[in-house]
Design a protein that fits this description.
Layout (H helix, E strand, L loop, with lengths): L1 E5 L6 H10 L3 E5 L11 E6 L25 E4 L1 H9 L3 E3 L5 E9 L12 E8 L2 E4 L5 E6 L2 E8 L4 E4 L11 H12 L7 H16 L3 E5 L4 H14 L4 E7 L7 H11 L5 E5 L1 H7 L6 H22 L7 E4 L4 H6 L17 H8 L3 E2 L7 H11 L3 H4 L25 H14 L3 E4 L4 E5 L2 E11 L4 H14 L3 E9 L7 E2 L6 H20 L11 E4 L1 E2 L5 E5 L2 E2 L7 E2 L4 H12 L4 E7 L12
Parallel strand pairs: 1-2, 1-3, 3-4, 4-11, 12-13, 12-15, 13-14, 15-16, 19-20, 24-27
Antiparallel strand pairs: 5-8, 6-7, 6-9, 9-10, 10-11, 17-19, 18-19, 20-27, 21-23, 22-24, 25-26
The protein binds xanthosine-5'-monophosphate (XMP).
The site of xanthosine-5'-monophosphate has 15 residues, from α9.
C-alpha cells in the first residue's frame, strides 16, 4: 500500500517521495495521466508543484477521474492551484511573486495541519495565487501575501497548500506530510534495506553479466556507488576511474586516492586529464556550454582510459553516482525545467542512458539517503560526511566574461533596489554579471545585487528576500565584507585559465581551512568559493563566499556565520595577491542556486 505522487514537473516532486520514505511509508512517482487501474493499493494522492501556470496552454495533461476516486488528495503549490481550479475555484495569474521564507498564520489546526503552532515558518515559490475557493472548501491558513495558502474540503479529505511542506525549510513540513500519511491510513514499514534488495535485483538484471566502469570523483555519491557495486557485483566486475580534470581542489586527487585505498579499494584507476579538460573549455563564457563541454570530456576521457587499459567498451558499462537531484535539475523528468545541466546528464550520456548502457545505483536517492546508505554499507564516517563538491568543480565557480553584459532594464531596477536598500540603511549596486537561480520551478539567469554598509544577518536576510521578490532582474544578493571603502569595479574579460583556477584554488583552500579552524565544518553543509571577474584595475578580481545549510540541496539557507570567522577569512583573502574584494552570498535557494553557474 502506498501514496502516489503525481509529477507535474516541480523541482520538489521527487523530494515528496523522499520525505514519505523518511516516514517509512512507501511512495511512488506517477504521471498525472495515470489510470485508476494503475493506482490499485494506493491510499492517497499528492499533486506536486510544477513550472507551469494553470493558464499555460502547455500545462501537463492529467486524468480528471483522479479527483472523483474518493482518495484523500494533497495538492502542493501548482497542485494546489490545479485542484482549486479543477473543482470550481479561481486562480489569479502572476499576482504575487513570493520566493523563500514566509509566515503561515493558522486559522484552524485541523487535518494535515493538526498539531501545528498558530504561526509556522513555511517555504514559498510561486507567482499565481488561488483567489476563490471551490464549494465545500475552507481556509486553514494564510500568509501576508497569500490569503488561501492552506485550504481543505473536510468532507472529501482534499487539501491544498500553496507552500512546500516537503522542503526542510518549512519547519514542520514533515509533520504535515505525516498527518497526510496517517489520514490516508498508509502503513509505515519501508526501510533502506528494501532499497538495497530492490537495487541488487535490478543491477543483476541490468548488467546481465557485464561489468561496470564507474567514474569516482571521491565525493560521497560516487564512493557509495562504488562500494555498493563492489558489494553486489564483486570486485572483478567493477573498476573505478578517478579523473583529475584540473578543476579539483587543492590536493584533492591525492586525498581521494588515499581515502579510497585506505578503505580497501584496490580496483581504482587514476588519470590526469587536466590538459584536455582545460582545452575543452577554452574561451567559453556561457555556464551551460561550459557544463556540457565538461560532461562530454568526462566520457571522452573514460573512453581513452578504457582503450589504454585494453577493456572492451561493449563489456564495460558506464557507472555514475548520480543522485535524483542531478536528474531533476537537468530537466530529466517529463515536465521539469532545466535549471543546470549536471556533468552526468550531457547529451552523450543521455544517449548511453537511452541504450541502457549506464548504471546509476543511487539515481532514486537524495544526498541524505545516499549518506544513510554509505553508513549502512560501512563507508568511513569522514568520507560519508565530506562536503559535496560538484563534478565540474572549480570550473563552475570561476565565472567567465567577454567583458560585456546584457544591461537591458537594469537601470530602472537599480533605482527600485536603491530605495528598498535605503530602508535598511544600506547601499546597493546591481552587478554587471549574471548567475544561475531557480524561481517558481524554472531557471533564471539574472544579476546579483551587491549591498554594503553596517548590517546584521537578519536584516540582510530580509533585504535579500525583498530585493529578489520585488525585482526580477535580481536573483541573488551579496554583501561586501571588504575592503571599506568599496573599490569601484568593472567587468573584465576573463576566461578559464590555469592562473585563474590557481587563484580560486588558493582562495578555496584558505576558506576551507578557516571553516575547520573555527569549528564550523559541521555547521555548514557546503561552502563554494566563487571567483568573479569584477575588478577596479582590470587585473585583480573578487571572490564570493557561499556558505549554505541544507539536507536535500533542493532548497538551502545561506549560513549566517559568526563575525570572528567572517573577519578572519576576509582578512586572509584580501592578503592574497590577485584578490581585491570579498563578498558574502546572502541568498537562499530559491531564488539562488547553491553554485553560481
Ligand atoms: P545547485 O547549484 O544546483 O547545487 O543548487 C546543488 C548541489 O549540486 C551540486 N552540483 C553538482 N554536482 N555535478 C555534480 O556532481 C554537477 O554538475 C553539479 N552542479 C551542481 C552543488 O555543488 C550542490 O551540492
Amino acid at each position: 500500500m502506498s501514496i502516489a505522487v503525481l509529477d507535474f514537473g516541480g523541482q520538489y516532486a521527487h523530494l515528496i517521495a523522499n520525505r514519505i520514505r523518511r516516514l517509512h511509508a512507501y511512495a511512488r512517482i506517477c504521471s498525472p495521466q495515470v489510470s485508476l487501474d494503475e493506482l490499485k493499493g494506493v491510499r492517497g494522492l499528492i499533486l506536486s508543484g510544477g513550472p507551469s501556470s494553470v493558464y499555460d496552454p502547455a500545462q501537463p495533461p492529467y486524468n480528471p477521474a483522479l479527483f472523483d476516486a474518493g482518495l484523500p488528495i494533497l495538492g502542493l503549490c501548482y497542485g494546489h492551484q490545479l485542484l482549486c481550479q479543477h473543482l470550481g475555484g479561481e486562480v489569479e495569474p502572476g499576482q504575487t511573486r513570493e520566493f523563500g521564507a514566509a509566515r503561515l498564520q493558522l486559522k484552524q489546526a485541523q487535518g494535515v495541519l493538526k498539531g501545528l503552532e498558530s504561526e509556522e515558518r513555511v517555504w514559498m515559490s510561486h507567482q499565481d495565487t488561488v483567489s476563490r475557493l471551490p464549494a465545500g472548501f475552507e481556509v486553514l491558513g494564510s500568509t501576508a501575501d497569500c490569503a488561501m495558502a492552506a485550504v481543505y474540503d473536510p468532507a472529501r479529505r482534499i487539501y491544498g497548500l500553496q507552500f512546500h511542506p516537503e522542503v526542510s525549510h518549512t519547519v514542520n513540513g514533515l509533520r504535515i506530510l505525516e498527518n497526510f500519511v496517517e489520514l490516508c491510513g498508509c502503513p509505515r514499514d519501508w526501510t533502506m534495506d528494501h532499497y538495497l534488495e530492490e537495487q541488487a535485483a535490478e543491477l543483476r538484471l541490468q548488467t546481465a553479466g557485464r561489468k561496470v566502469f564507474l567514474l569516482v570523483s571521491g565525493g560521497v555519491d560516487s564512493s557509495v556507488a562504488f562500494l555498493m557495486l563492489n558489494r553486489i557485483l564483486g570486485e572483478d566486475r567493477v573498476m573505478g576511474l578517478h579523473i583529475d580534470n584540473g578543476f579539483m581542489r587543492h590536493n584533492e586527487t591525492a586525498t581521494v586516492r588515499r581515502l579510497l585505498t585506505d578503505s580497501g579499494f584496490a580496483n581504482l584507476h587514476v588519470v590526469d586529464a587536466s590538459a584536455e579538460f582545460l582545452a575543452a573549455v577554452e574561451g567559453v563564457v556561457d555556464p551551460e556550454e561550459k557544463r556540457r563541454r565538461i560532461g562530454t570530456q568526462f566520457i571522452r576521457t573514460r573512453d581513452r582510459a578504457l582503450e589504454e587499459l585494453k577493456l572492451d567498451p561493449e563489456e564495460w558499462l558506464l557507472g555514475q553516482g548520480t543522485l535524483y537531484t542531478d536528474t531533476i535539475e537537468s530537466g530529466g523528468t517529463a515536465h521539469a525545467a532545466v535549471i543546470k545541466t549536471h556533468h552526468n546528464r550531457v547529451d552523450l550520456i543521455e544517449k548511453l542512458l537511452a541504450e541502457g548502457k549506464v548504471i546509476e545505483p543511487l539515481a532514486q536517492l537524495y544526498k541524505d539517503e545516499a549518506r544513510e546508505l554509505g553508513e549502512k554499507l560501512g563507508l568511513p564516517h569522514h568520507l560519508v560526511w565530506r562536503h559535496p563538491f560538484p563534478g565540474p568543480g572549480l570550473a563552475v565557480r570561476t565565472l567567465c566574461s567577454a567583458g560585456k553584459t546584457d544591461w537591458e532594464g537594469v537601470e530602472e531596477a537599480q533605482g527600485r533596489a536603491a530605495s528598498i536598500a535605503a530602508r535598511f540603511g544600506l547601499q546597493v549596486e546591481i552587478l554587471p554579471l549574471r548567475s544561475v537561480g531557480v524561481q517558481g520551478d524554472g531557471r533564471t539567469y539574472a544579476h546579483p545585487a551587491l549591498v554594503w554598509g553596517e548590517a546584521q544577518w537578519p536584516a540582510l536576510e530580509e533585504l535579500s528576500t525583498e530585493l529578489t521578490n520585488a525585482i526580477p532582474k535580481i536573483n541573488r544578493v551579496v554583501y561586501l565584507l571588504g575592503p571599506v571603502p568599496r573599490p569601484v569595479q568593472h567587468l573584465k574579460p576573463a576566461y578559464l585559465t590555469r592562473q585563474r583556477l590557481a587563484l580560486l584554488r588558493r582562495a578555496d583552500s584558505l576558506a576551507m581551512a578557516a571553516l575547520e579552524q573555527h569549528g564550523l565544518m559541521q555547521e555548514v553543509t557546503q561552502m563554494p568559493t566563487v571567483l568573479v571577474p569584477l575588478s577596479s584595475d582590470g587585473i585583480h578580481e573578487s571572490v564570493v563566499l557561499r556558505p549554505i545549510s541544507t539536507d536535500d540541496f533542493m532548497t538551502a539557507r545561506f549560513s549566517a556565520l559568526p563575525q570572528t570567522f567572517v573577519s578572519d577569512i576576509c582578512r586572509q583573502l584580501l592578503e592574497v595577491e590577485g584578490i581585491e574584494a570579498v563578498f558574502y552570498d546572502v541568498t537562499h535557494k530559491p531564488p539562488g542556486t547553491v553554485e553560481w553557474e
